[in-house]
Specification:
four-stranded mixed beta sheet; 13-stranded mixed beta sheet; 5 helices; 39% strand; mainly beta
Length: 374
């Protein structure tokens, strides 16, 4: 029996869907979801939309007993005609409030990343924050711009701290980085003779558009307590693997030192390498499996942040890749997962995890600490 994807809303559960699409992307501020259902005219009250299905309602999406998304309803599309009666729900995860809402006008000195989260993120209902990497030292001066969204401010602060924000399926805001030390969770195979093949298709896309041979970041620092600010801060990064000259100069007023400008240049260069190649792999079902019956498998649901080994003879690939995005879909054709893969180790390189000796100040679990408001 096929495992259902269930929507929990208003204390009720619904698992009968005509189609759905559920995204999860480490590079997208808010993961979105869309679900479609048709009404049964023979069911009592079947032609009435329950009053708890409204825009702004809190939801959870479940794959069996596993939470795969926590978020809100953005839109309710209810259509009735002589031939059909359909309901379409669309929404995003908890990051939606961060990209929809403006940050308060603030100017902070010696501000830490947690200060920024406390001032702008927690007031929007984000209760739990988990640090999986050590933030950098406090910034000399941090300020917001009129009209700037909370997510724009958080993202800029995280990049300056050499970390990245994303939401887990249960609604936790993670401040961290990819862990390239975890073993691959699966082998994705496509051979010419079909032996051991366990994917529906593999698409390889190579793109020069975001690739650069040399990147220069020009920064400046604010003067505090009578000190003179600097306006000649320079950071550079280069990529010898690109056989074309494609220089890029970026002006970033938030880079207060040459080290920070260099980190910024290296981050942009890492993004350049990341965008140069991507694999799109389609697999049956929504869970990791080595069996031929994915719909009855009990493995872990596919999720961004996993590492996989790809063997594709048509593409000449035998390497480890990083899952940057996954999409669960249901249609009349099939129920499957689309995995977006990037070359392993190309996103946010060389960022140290929290060391064990910092447990007294960063929490009780090595490599991570959690802060919550109950």
């Amino acid at each position: 029996m096929r495992e259902p994807v269930t929507l929990l809303i208003g204390g009720k559960a619904h698992a009968e869907w005509e189609s759905y699409r559920i995204d999860s992307d480490l590079l997208t501020p808010a993961d979105d979801w869309q679900m479609n259902a048709s009404f049964d005219g023979d069911t009592p009250n079947g032609n009435v939309v329950p009053d708890f299905i409204v825009e702004g309602a809190s939801i959870k999406l479940m794959l069996g007993d596993d939470v795969i998304l926590t978020g809100l309803v953005d839109a309710v599309d209810h259509e009735a005609s002589k031939r059909s009666h359909m309901l379409e729900l669309y929404g995003r995860d908890l990051g939606s409030r961060l990209i929809d809402c403006s940050v308060p006008l603030l100017s902070l000195q010696l501000a830490t990343l947690d200060d920024i989260i406390t001032q702008a993120v927690r007031p929007l209902g984000v209760k739990t924050v988990e640090y999986r990497a050590k933030p950098a030292a406090a910034r000399k001066k941090v300020h917001t711009e009129p009209g700037q969204t909370v997510w724009e401010w958080l993202q800029a602060a995280c990049e300056a701290n050499q970390v990245w924000p994303w939401f887990t399926p249960d609604g936790t805001l993670v401040i961290g980085q990819p862990d390239y030390t975890t073993p691959p969770v699966a082998d994705l195979i496509m051979r010419f003779n079909g032996e051991g093949n366990n994917v529906k298709g593999i698409r390889q896309v190579k793109n020069l558009h975001y690739s650069y041979s040399d990147i220069t970041v020009l920064g400046q620092s604010a003067g505090l307590d009578g000190a003179v600010g600097q306006h000649n801060i320079v950071g550079k990064a280069s990529d010898s693997s690109l056989n074309l000259r494609r220089p890029l100069v970026v002006v970033d007023g938030n880079c207060e030192s040459a080290d920070l400008a260099t980190h910024r240049a290296e981050k942009i260069m890492a993004d350049s390498r990341m965008h140069r190649e991507r694999l799109l792999v389609r697999v049956a079902g929504h869970r990791i499996t080595t069996a031929n019956e994915p719909e009855t498998d009990t493995g872990t649901p596919w999720a961004p942040g996993m590492r996989v080994h790809v063997l594709s003879e048509p593409h000449g690939i035998d390497a480890v890749y990083f899952v940057i995005k996954r999409i669960f879909t249901l249609s009349v054709q099939a129920r499957e997962t689309e995995l977006h893969l990037i070359p392993d180790g190309t996103w946010l390189l060389n960022l140290p995890f929290v060391k064990d000796k910092r447990r007294s100040s960063y929490g009780s679990k090595k490599g991570a600490h959690t802060q919550g408001n109950n």
